[in-house]
Amino acid sequence: MQSTFIANSISALQTIAQQIIDSYKDDRIFILEGEMGAGKTTLTKSICKHLGANDNVCSPTFAIVNQYFSEKAGDIYHFDFYRINKEQEAFDIGFEEYLYSGNYCFIEWAEKVSNLLPLHYIIISIKETQDQKREITIKEV
């Protein structure tokens, strides 16, 4: 299954976030792809809000992983592997334990840890269009 959405504004992301979670109710691993500044963290923030997280959702660029909590969804993990140089660094922080915890995991720059990813996950690709909108494509792997 593949879906494509166009986000005309940040407020449109709430509807898209709800559609993503509603369409992939049984999935917990989400890979966010896109150029720097495309809106990966902004979309993750909208999804976490839809899941009921009240924490301040922000980029884990320096921390590598942020943990948020939701009464509705439990722990939510948000990874940003932009700064890592080797997959071993992700392995050292226990990345695989997070992946197989059964909790939501949102992963930015997942290509840096491709050998550690499970067999099944959802890819969310975000591309900025010429008119400053975002084209968001979702597909299962």
Keywords:
141 residues; globular; alpha/beta; seven-stranded mixed β-sheet; 30% strand; 24% helix; Rossmann fold
Write the layout of secondary structure elements.
Elements: E1 2-7, H1 12-23, E2 29-33, H2 40-50, E3 65-70, E4 74-80, H3 87-92, H4 95-99, E5 104-108, E6 122-128, E7 134-140
Parallel strand pairs: 2-5, 2-6, 4-5
Antiparallel strand pairs: 1-7, 3-4, 6-7
Helix pairs in contact: 1-2
Query: What series of H and E elements makes up the topology?
Result: EHEHEEHHEEE
Oligomer: single chain
Q: Structural class, judged by helices and strands? A: alpha/beta
Strand content: 25-35%
Compute the average pLDDT. Answer: 93
Head-to-tail CA distance between termini:
9 Å
CATH topology: Rossmann fold
Helix content: 10-25%
Radius of gyration of CA atoms, rounded to a whole number = 14 Å
Poorly predicted runs are none
CATH 4th-level superfamily: P-loop containing nucleotide triphosphate hydrolases
Query: Tally of extended strands?
Result: 7
